[in-house]
Amino acid sequence: MDEQKYVQKLLEISKNSNIDKIRNVNYSEEYMPFEGSPKRHPTNENILILIVNSFEQNKKFYEFHLETISAVEEVGTLTSDDNKSVYQIRVWVKKGTMAVKSETFIV
């Protein structure tokens, strides 16, 4: 499954979320936004990998379980100076849930 189809699956999941659509939901009070390029987890299809800095050598990424994601928004496509492009999304994750943050560093 390519990344576009994977994002479409995430968008469908977010439409079926249990958020009360009748009242005005203030996402900033109960949810945290994260933006990046979505990738499928290599072994667990229920985990979303979100790469924050796709064009940098030292990558930083987050891992979220799909059930902790309350909404997904399409942000657009970013293009680098050497004409590489990545698809960007914004995910809204419920505050207080567990996630994984990974970044490289020099020892």
- As a percent range, the share of helical residues equals 10-25%
Instruction: Calculate the terminal CA-CA distance, rounded to whole Å.
Output: 37 Å
Strand % is 35-45%
Radius of gyration, in Å, reads 14 Å
Inertia-based shape:
globular
Q: What is the N-to-C succession of helices and strands?
A: HHEEEEEE
Strand order of the largest sheet: 4-5-1-2-3-6
Q: How many strand elements?
A: 6
Class derived from helix and strand content: alpha+beta
Helix segment tally = 2
Account of the 3D structure:
This protein has 107 residues and is α+β, with helices and mostly antiparallel strands. A 6-stranded antiparallel beta sheet has the order 4-5-1-2-3-6. It contains 2 helices and 6 strands.
What's the short version?
The chain is of the alpha+beta class and 107 residues long. It has helices at 3-15, 27-30; strands spanning 31-40, 47-51, 60-65, 69-79, 85-94, 100-103. The chain contains two helices and six strands; from the N terminus they run H-H-E-E-E-E-E-E.
